[in-house]
Amino acid sequence: MIIRDNLLDDSSFTEIKNEIIKLPYRLMDYKVSIGDEIACLINLVYFADTPKSDIFELLHTYFCCPLDAVTWVRIKINLTLKDQGSTIWGWHTDYDGLGNKPQYANMKTSIFYLNNTNGPTVFKDGSEVDCVRNRLLTFPSNTIHSGRSHTEGDNKRIVINFNYF
């Protein structure tokens, strides 16, 4: 697991955040797996070798080099709202979400946090990474993890989830 704070300079961070706030989001009736009944908002930026959102070029420009990404598998923006209690959303791996195929075994996941909340990314081994503005977290995509709802900080928890090689 690698944590990089203050990944972007202030100007670049502000540009990305301002564009992300303007994006349309799709309301999903599940967060991790169908039937979990945890609503969330998403903007699918890139999937199946195709940009799906107007913000793809901007994210590619700012994140391709720092992530040392050769090819994108999926880029998704997740937006969740402040909750009354702290709940782990569901243990998963990003690798499993792609069919658990051998060709995804070396894929990486990076999570970029756009704001400060008390909704960390938690790992099955008990470790946690706080949701801190302009922080990048990178780990193998087959690592069991989850997000956790937030009760303090900004009203919205916005993260960009990158899956790539």
Describe the protein's architecture and organization.
The chain has 165 residues and is of the alpha+beta class. The protein is built from 2 helices and 11 strands; from the N terminus they run E-H-E-E-E-H-E-E-E-E-E-E-E. The chain has a single domain, classed as q2cbj1_9rhob like domain (Jelly Rolls, Sandwich). The strands form 2 sheets. Strands 1, 2, 3, 4, 5, 6, 9 and 11 form an 8-stranded antiparallel beta sheet that branches. The chain has a 3-stranded antiparallel beta sheet with strand order 8-7-10, with no helix packed on it. The longest helix is centred in the first third of the chain and has 13 residues.
Keywords for this entry:
single chain, 165 residues, alpha+beta, Jelly Rolls, three-stranded antiparallel beta sheet, 2 helices
List the helices and strands and how they pair.
Layout: E1 2-4, H1 10-22, E2 26-28, E3 40-47, E4 50-51, H2 56-67, E5 72-81, E6 108-113, E7 117-123, E8 128-131, E9 135-140, E10 145-147, E11 156-164
Antiparallel strand pairs: 1-9, 2-3, 3-4, 3-5, 5-11, 6-9, 6-11, 7-8, 7-10
Largest sheet: 8 strands, antiparallel
What is the helix/strand order? EHEEEHEEEEEEE
Unreliable sequence segments = none
Output the number of helix runs: 2
**Separation of termini?**
16 Å
Number of domains: 1
Strand content: 35-45%
What is the CATH top level name?
Mainly Beta
Secondary structure category: alpha+beta
Q: What's the CATH H-level superfamily name?
A: q2cbj1_9rhob like domain
What is the 3D form?
globular
Percent helix = 10-25%
Whole-angstrom Rg: 15 Å
